[in-house]
Write a structure and sequence with these properties.
The complex is a heterodimer of chains A (317) and B (544).
Chain A (H helix, E strand, L loop, with lengths): L1 H28 L15 H11 L5 H13 L13 H36 L4 H15 L2 H15 L20 H34 L2 H8 L4 H28 L3 H6 L5 H10 L3 H29 L2 H4 L1
Chain B lengths: L5 H19 L13 E6 L14 H9 L7 E3 L10 E3 L2 E7 L2 E9 L13 H12 L8 H7 L6 E8 L2 E6 L6 H5 L7 H6 L4 H6 L7 E7 L3 E6 L14 E6 L3 H9 L5 E3 L6 H6 L3 E3 L5 E7 L10 H10 L2 H7 L5 E2 L22 H11 L7 E7 L9 H13 L3 E7 L2 H10 L11 E7 L3 H9 L17 H11 L4 H17 L3 E6 L4 E3 L3 E2 L15 E2 L2
Parallel strand pairs in B: 1-10, 1-11, 15-16, 15-17
Antiparallel strand pairs in B: 2-3, 4-5, 5-7, 6-7, 8-9, 9-10, 11-19, 12-19, 13-17, 13-18, 14-18, 20-21
Helix pairs in contact in B: 10-12, 16-17
Classes of the chains: A mainly alpha (317), B alpha+beta (544).
Chain lengths: 317, 544
């Protein structure tokens, strides 16, 4: 097991290096001016060139990449051009906010996704299956920014039950787990959960149907195991795949949703990315993408390890 | 360590709980829950503007974090809504040019002005602030503030304190527009910079200016809370509310939802399709003319079709501005010139902007074009952008209008920041992709931003932003007259003559002016929407 984990960790190094190169290149080849956030629109070309020098953008791309990577491996992701604040601090604060939101969205998505999936798979072709499948298809298909706006119109503007924007009274820096704050998470978390819920439900439904058709299930029934016992075996067999899918979905959610976080002004990584893109804040953009990519890589690693623990056949494969 | 006994602990806890309970509904820290009312504003910016002095985020940054926390030597008078704003004494009580040497200006510093940290504003502090922006080897040089401020004061060649109360500024050449340039510059406290370890990032969290508001709380990207500065030198402008909370909510529908849901009292730039329903729901909608215009900037390099004045006039006569007003739910002022109608510098142009399709067709025919044999040309536009209003439907309307009189316009659509770079590079640069015009909206508040930067020969790229490479010795002479018009009345007249030439020669496609729409709750009272990019929040009160 340890050798397998060690091997997986070693594999992540070239992946991380590739990710850092790709994210640097993507950010730099896209059109626009990295100083757009610090220069007034009517600044002259001469002033722009002066500022390029002051910010070090007059250096060659390999030189800039080398410097950035060298600092990044030491934990220094640079300084935001637009704000002058350390990128690492900005990203970690935003990631904490997104993590909070993603965790709630994951719980909602996983619980309801599994529920719909197991029910639909277990009662295949019944009306329950059709209803659960319909809900999961809606979850996958509905544009979530649209859903977010509809939820805001209904629950904030019309009914006034839940706040429409922000991360609670006083902002995210004074977060506490009380209803005053949690109420700000409800609408964005529900909006965020619909896609993973749909994906998990569809995956689990197919898995359950496949497992139920296997011979060992017939064997279990033949040995007199009751429905609950059979169901437990089905769940255990479906768990590794469901977990892997959930892990991937959590990775996506941790990336924050630019659209959802913008609609709800939730100060997470999506909101940060949106600001960085529109301000052409290259250090912030690079740093945020890198951290999110690292999250994703590490999350995949963790899922692989947990899957192996649940199903030793994977290690042997 | 101080010992806290049980009784005082209970008393302070009860007080804190009461404060939290009162403030919780407003999303405020306990200190905010006090008399005077709290004004919560949703800005369109995606971040809190730079707090250290010279703000970023354009006009909005200066509006909320510039003229609130800071002052300039010369401020804008924002007390009237019924006329265009003029300059008024700020940290300087008087400024005058030396008659013997018109490159030399003397500013008399206002006595007894204190920064929020208690230190005193002097001419030396002013020099320190100019160094902050212009002198790269000074310890306080801040590249972020420099990027914002340097381009605002192109005429300044030198400055020195003659005494604590007298500041001398010298210019590269005689320039009567200097006071308008200086009005951009915000003055931060040298003492606070020292106290914060000479670190601008630390100052950003606890800045100190001389303005009527003091920054009390700052959560990057989420909120800034300003409180009145009781020691403000202009007692009439000490804020009447107890706190102003600024929230960055860049998405227009999210701002509307926040207003409807009671999370904020005031939103900037509501979505135009939400205005009618907001009004119906009892919210106030305020709007007024302000120095903004929405134009097509014509290229004037050799080969440009816009070098023919008949073509320029025809385009201006073809635009259906009333139709556009309907398109924008009345949230615009149809252009009568480059400046807003009734502006003090409007003058009396002879070419009247109106919709006259027949006259436009005649002019185009004289120039050799008809709807059947149209003038084909390309125009650069962006699908969105600061101040660009609703560029896609607006440009499409103009495209149709112009097609009726003999133009075949092809749009080259680029992203907004790309358009800015093209604008800086000039019409002859390959990045302009052969376009002969560009849709651009302008901040036109002072002589330089309103006129000089667009058409002065010396400001052709890369030296400036004369994108169209326009060059006319007569116009340059008018600019020179303006720069030497040291008497305010003479300056006004010089500005009028320039504006008359802008309109009479149809130097731009002059389409519309934005009206700075804002939506606010009925309890917000006392707001006077000045005809300016900046606004005064001091007189506002919140009704019970």
């Amino acid at each position: 097991m340890l050798a397998y984990i060690g091997r997986r960790v070693v594999y992540t190094v070239p992946i991380m290096l590739g990710v850092s190169l790709v994210c640097f290149a993507l950010v730099h080849i896209s059109p626009g001016d990295p100083l757009v956030s610090v220069l007034p629109a009517d600044a002259s070309e001469q002033l722009r060139l002066t500022m390029m020098r002051l910010y070090g953008f007059d250096r060659s791309y390999p030189e800039q990449f080398g410097l950035w990577l060298w600092r990044a491996v030491q934990g220094d992701l640079g300084t935001s051009i637009a704000t002058g604040r350390a990128v690492a601090t900005e990203v970690l604060r935003a990631a904490g906010n997104t993590l909070r939101l993603a965790a709630l969205a994951t719980v909602i998505g996983f619980v309801f996704g599994c529920l719909f999936g197991f029910v639909a798979g277990y009662f295949r072709d019944s009306w329950v299956d059709k209803l659960a499948s319909l809900l999961s298809v809606i979850g996958v298909s509905v544009p979530h920014y649209w859903l977010g706006m509809v939820l805001v119109i209904v629950f904030s503007s019309q009914l006034g039950w839940l706040p429409a924007t922000g991360a609670g009274p006083g902002g995210s820096s004074s977060w506490v787990w009380d209803w005053e704050h949690v109420s700000h998470m409800v609408l964005p978390a529900i909006t965020m959960s619909v896609i993973p819920m749909g994906i998990i439900a569809r995956t689990v439904r197919a898995l359950v149907a496949e497992i139920l058709a296997q011979e060992f299930v017939i064997g279990l029934k033949a040995r007199g195991l009751n429905e609950v016992g059979v169901f437990a075996h089905v769940v255990k067999n479906a768990a590794p795949t469901a977990l892997a899918v959930m892990g991937l979905q959590l990775g996506y959610l941790l990336g924050g949703s630019i659209l959802i976080e913008t609609v709800f002004s939730w100060p997470g990584t999506g909101f940060l990315l949106n600001a960085a893109i529109f301000q052409r804040d290259l250090p912030l953009l690079q740093g945020t993408i890198l951290v999110l990519a690292m999250f994703f890589v590490l999350l995949n690693l963790a899922v692989d390890v947990v899957q192996t623990m649940l199903d030793p056949r994977i290690e042997r494969g | 360590m101080t010992q806290l006994d049980r009784r005082s602990f209970l008393a302070s806890s009860a007080g804190a709980a009461a404060g939290v309970a009162a403030g919780a509904g407003l999303g405020l820290s306990p200190a905010a829950a006090q008399a005077g009312g709290v004004l919560r504003i949703a800005m369109t910016a995606s971040d809190i503007p730079l707090t250290t002095g010279q703000t970023d985020q354009g006009g909005e940054g200066q509006r909320f974090m510039g003229y609130t926390v800071y002052d300039s030597l010369i401020n804008w008078d924002l007390s009237r809504s019924d006329r265009s704003s003029s300059l008024t004494p700020g940290l300087a009580t008087k400024w005058e040019v030396d008659p013997a040497n018109t490159n030399r200006w003397i500013f008399t510093i206002r006595e007894g002005v204190q920064f929020h940290d208690g230190s005193t504003f002097t001419a030396e502090a002013a020099v320190w602030n100019f160094d902050k922006l212009l002198k790269e080897d000074s310890p306080q040089f801040d590249r972020r503030q420099s990027a914002q401020g340097r381009s605002r004061i192109p005429s300044i060649a030198g400055y020195r304190a003659l005494s604590p109360g007298v500041l001398e500024i010298t210019t590269r050449a005689p320039d009567a527009t200097l006071p308008y340039q200086v009005a951009w510059i915000m003055f931060s406290s040298p003492a606070q910079w020292e106290a914060m370890g000479r670190n601008w990032d630390a100052v950003a969290l606890r800045p100190s200016g001389t303005g009527p508001w003091r920054l009390d709380r700052f959560v990057p990207r989420e909120r800034a809370e300003l409180v009145p500065f009781p020691g403000y030198w202009d007692k009439a402008r000490v804020p009447k509310t107890s706190r102003m909370v600024l929230l960055p909510i860049p998405e227009a529908n999210a701002r509307v939802a926040a207003l409807r849901g009671g999370q904020v009292d005031w939103i900037e730039a509501p979505a135009s399709d939400a205005i009618a329903s907001l009004r119906q729901a009892g919210f106030q909608i305020t709007a007024n003319a302000y120095p903004h215009n929405w134009t097509w900037h014509f290229a004037r390099n050799p080969g440009s079709p816009w070098n023919d004045v008949r073509v320029r006039r025809a385009a201006n006569l073809a635009v259906d501005r009333q139709g556009m007003k309907q398109l924008l739910a009345d949230m615009m002022i149809p252009a009568e010139g480059f400046l807003t109608p009734g502006h003090a510098w409007f003058g009396n142009p002879t070419f009247k902007l109106r919709t006259d399709v027949d006259a436009a067709k005649r002019l185009m025919a004289e120039a050799g074009f008809t709807p059947q044999r149209p003038l084909r040309t390309k125009v650069l536009i962006a699908p969105s952008g600061s101040g660009q209003m609703q560029p896609l439907p607006m440009n499409e309307l103009i495209q149709q209008n112009l097609a009726d009189v003999g133009f075949a316009i092809e749009f080259e659509v680029v992203e907004w920041n790309t358009l800015i770079n093209i604008w800086r590079a000039g019409a002859a640069h390959p990045s302009s992709r052969g376009a002969s015009a560009m849709n651009y909206s302008y901040f036109i508040q002072d002589p330089f931003t309103a006129f000089i930067r667009h058409l002065a020969t010396e400001l052709q790229p890369p030296a400036g932003t004369n994108w169209g490479l326009y060059s006319d010795p007569d116009m340059d002479r008018l600019f020179q007259d303006l720069r030497t018009a040291f008497d305010p009345a003479a300056l006004d007249r010089a500005m009028q003559r320039i504006h008359e030439k802008y309109v009479d020669e149809a130097l731009f496609l002059m389409v519309t002016h934005d009206v700075g729409a804002r939506a606010m709750h009925r309890r917000v009272q006392g707001f006077v929407q000045a005809q300016n990019w900046f606004q005064d929040f001091s007189p506002i009160t919140i009704a019970g």
